[in-house]
Amino acid sequence: MSLAVVRDMRPELRLSTPEEVADFEQDLLSEFVLARASAGTGDGTISGDVYVIVEVRSWFGRPLWEMEPRDLDRFFGEHQKGLENATKVRKAQSLSVYFEFLELRHKPAIHAATGYVVESPLDEINRPRGSALSRLRIPPPARQIDHLFTSWRDEIPKARKPLPVVRSYTAMRLASLIGPRVSELTLANVDDIHWDLGQFGKILLKGKGKRGKKKERLVPLINGSRQLLEWWVDGPRWEYDNRVNEPGAPLFPSERRAADGSSLRADTDTLRLHLKQKVALYLPSQAGNLTPHTMRHFAASELYRQGVDVVAIQELLGHKWISTTMIYVHVNQTHIEDAWVRAGQRAHTRFGGTS
Known about the structure:
Helix content is 53%, strand content 7%. By secondary structure, the protein is mainly α. It is globular, with a radius of gyration of 27 Å.
């Protein structure tokens, strides 16, 4: 028995123009998206992967199959130097999956078409260390948060300078209810509250992204946040100045005044410091742990516990990655415990209740 010569019947692929390269890259990315979807990967995760791939491709300026480890050294070590390590880890994971896809499915074709042998530029030297879960912040239970804010509010009538006490109380209480960032609180204006939007009213939260790009989102005033802001805007806020109804009046003002007599904005350091002081006074067991950012974790965890789905919480908090939101609500996920209970019930039924 002789062996026949096996010949590849596919047409030769040779990329000779920038347009052909761009089309080939787009075909690869489209196939990658389809493959991820067929594996049951969520839309949010796939979108996050694609965002990273496009971002790195734009920075690199050439097809990713040309990347070498030293190129990725520059990307993470210089271009992404200021990012949180957890963000770098997520981006590295997206790149790792994409290069695995290229190597498993298209390594021979890419080599034949371009002359490059595709290999992942991530290695044990330049791969960002750690895990998103390593940054998991476990917020205090609701009863402790309630004790903190009840004690804080009770202090207001007795305080030597009540205005900053009530201002910082309101800002941090809002953070515990709907999870705005502390920077978003300091940038908020009174006229950013749109009382008539939606079922509960909404607040426009503003922030700055990478390279100063503005980021805005409308957040519904759920979970008691509307009542809190009505109490603040209709009452204590007027004690700072009488400019509440003027455009651009800060929602959370400072005691400092501008030249025209209006209140300046409270800054993030002030809000952080006041929360730190009240935690040390009323909840000392959480000193060093309970920060404005941990309040965002608390808000997400409580909303998840109340039945709000993860996608809604992702939009509420303004997360680009749903994996980030999953970290925030991780503490209240019970699928392991639920599976344990179901397994016990099945065993009980199978063995007729014998022990």
